[in-house]
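Lab notebook, bench 4. Still working through the backlog of constructs that have no structural model yet. Next entry is a single chain of 108 residues. Request: give me the structure tokens for it.
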Amino acid sequence: MKVTAKCVMGLSVITLALPSFAATDPTAPLGFEAPSQPTTRTKVRLPRLDAILCGSENDCSAVLNGRALAKGQSINGYVIRAINEEAVTLVRGDRRWSLTVFNEQVVQ
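Model written out:
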């Protein structure tokens, strides 16, 4: 019985150690490194401007993707730089976008 237990234990150690040997390709040339996976850039869509809500000249908020937001807040990585009755200006990095709505979507 002791011999069988030792054989089972020895086989277990060998089978557990095999995956670590498979981490590198023994047939690859010396100094060869497998190419790394290309980094994929995720596209972040520009938010959809649903409406602009203005209480007074300087007090406007925007509804972007169904969320009411004010100047200085952000959505999907875009920061709201300015909101007026006609447009919303978004900034991301060094790029700037101006979103406009139709006149019937501006609520005063």
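Notes after review: The CA atoms of residues 35 and 90 lie 38 Å apart. The mean pLDDT is 79. Flag for follow-up if needed.
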